[in-house]
Each structure stands twice: as C-alpha cells, then as structure tokens.
Amino acid sequence: MAFSRVRHNDRGELRVYDGSDDLAINLAEYIAELSEASVRDHGVFSVALSGGSLISLMRKLCEAPYNMTVDWARWHIFWADERVVSKSHSDSNYKLAKDVLLSKVPVVPSHIHSINDTVSAEEAANDYEFVIRQLVRTRTICVSDIHDCPKFDLILLGMGSDGHVASLFPGHESLGESNEWVTFLTDAPKPPHERITFTLPVINSASNIAIVVTGQNKARGVQMVMMGGSGTGYNCPALPAQMVSPTSGNLMWFLDSSAASKLDGTWFSK
Ligand SMILES: O=C1O[C@H](COP(=O)(O)O)[C@@H](O)[C@H](O)[C@H]1O
C-alpha cells in the first residue's frame, strides 16, 4: 500500500506515510506524473520550490527511474520563497536545491529562475516579479483563468512549526498582500530576516499545490490546520497554511506519521 492513511476534505487530500523513504518515493511519483501531464498539455512544467526539509524529501527524483524518465529539459524552476543572501550562502534556498537536486539532473541552466542576490530585498522581489511577468506574457508560465495571476503547474511548500508556508508568517502584513505577486520582508520572525515570497493570490492560483510536512515538532501545527484552530497572529486569525486554498487547482498534503500524530484515527474515518 502506497500510504497508510488518506483523507479528502476541504483542506485537500491528505496522505500519511509511515516513514520518510515511503513519503519520498511517493512524492517523486506525484511530481513525475504532474511533470508528464503538464508537458503533454502545454510543453512546459513550471514548478516552484521552497527550502527547508522539503528538498531532501525530493531526493528520489535524482534516482532511477525518474532521473532518466522525467523530461527535465521542459522544467522551469522557481522559488516560492527565498532568503535574501548570496547564492553560495548556506541559508540560500537556491543553494540547497542546487546541491541536493538540480546539480544531479539534466535541467537547462537558463530554466532555473533564481532571485537576484546582489540587490536589496525590495529590489529582488520586484526583479523576480518582473521575470515571472515576462514568462507569463510568453506563456512559459500559464495564466489563471480567474485573474491575471501566474498559474504554476506545481508549487511545493513546506510548513514551519508555527504554520508558516513559503515566507508567509503568522500575523505578518504580507499575508494580506493582494496586488503584488512577489513581496519582501525585512522582519521575518525566523532568520534570515530578509526574504522574498510569493503572495497568497499567486500560491492559490497554482494548478497544483503540495504541502510536505514531517516531524513531531510539526504535529501541533498540522492539527491546528486540519481541525481549524486559529493562529497566533494579532491581525490575522488563520495560520498561513490554513490560507492555502487553491481557487481552481488541487491541494495535496504529504505527511509522515509523526507530523500526523495528533490527528487521531477517528479523524481519518470521518
Ligand atoms: O524558512 C523556511 O521554512 C519553511 C519550512 O522549513 P522546514 O525545514 O521546517 O520544512 C520552508 O518551507 C521555507 O521555504 C523556508 O524558507
């Protein structure tokens, strides 16, 4: 059996795996299937990565069969969030993805759309939005049917123990940003404090969103998201992860059993 427990509800489809290897195998299969379907449909797979634990959980993509069967040349790679540090810094989400994944598969270097690491957070966010706008104009990235937002084929998110996704933190004013596609922070509660991030309208316009969460320290956050508890924000009652709600796409949660440990058996049988 691919996963030990599954449930569909208004928060999407939730898959719980016994161990990190099981999760990684199934995450690779899910991504490979979406890549194939997107390339068949419009010739490109536009995928936005996050940082953190997600990246090592994508490790199976570098192995057989995916290293050979995935159409890597059609991938266009973006970041849902990035820390404003040099690309060689150990805090860089780009560096993490490059070291663990992108250096091991035949992606086209010009299809790796990393942020400008030589400018301020504000300029980096503006530059990144400009790059994305050009790629929407040429339809390398699809466009939402509902408004003018980019419609990435897949946005991959992790979730912090505080419920943050990308660099959207509980109670932060960036959660309310509805005009920009990419915004910046200089006061992120988790260091490094300077970051850029996709805004919620962009995340929620994606065709597919996967939130990948592992570890006991995330169990309380997962419970709050799934069972509807409110966040710690002073002007925003919901945890950022609860605000991920695709307008017309699909939302999938990949959890390990530790992260799901506060969701009891009855919750899955509802
Ligand atoms: O700071 C960040 O944290 C989140 C969660 O990271 P994790 O290691 O707890 O999984 C990550 O998704 C985000 O991209 C990153 O910038």
From TrEMBL:
**Pfam families given for it?**
Glucosamine_iso
Question: What does the record give under GO molecular function?
Answer: 6-phosphogluconolactonase activity
GO terms in the biological process aspect are: carbohydrate metabolic process; pentose-phosphate shunt
Alphabetical GO CC annotations of the entry are:
cytoplasm
| Keywords, in A-Z order | Hydrolase
* Superkingdom per UniProt: Eukaryota
Show where the Glucosamine/galactosamine-6-phosphate isomerase domain sits: 20-253
Does Hydrolase count among this protein's keywords? yes
Q: Which residues form a coiled coil?
A: none
Q: Record's family?
A: Belongs to the glucosamine/galactosamine-6-phosphate isomerase family. 6-phosphogluconolactonase subfamily.
Q: What is this protein called?
A: Probable 6-phosphogluconolactonase
Q: Per the UniProt entry, what species is this protein from, by scientific name?
A: Trapa natans (Water chestnut)
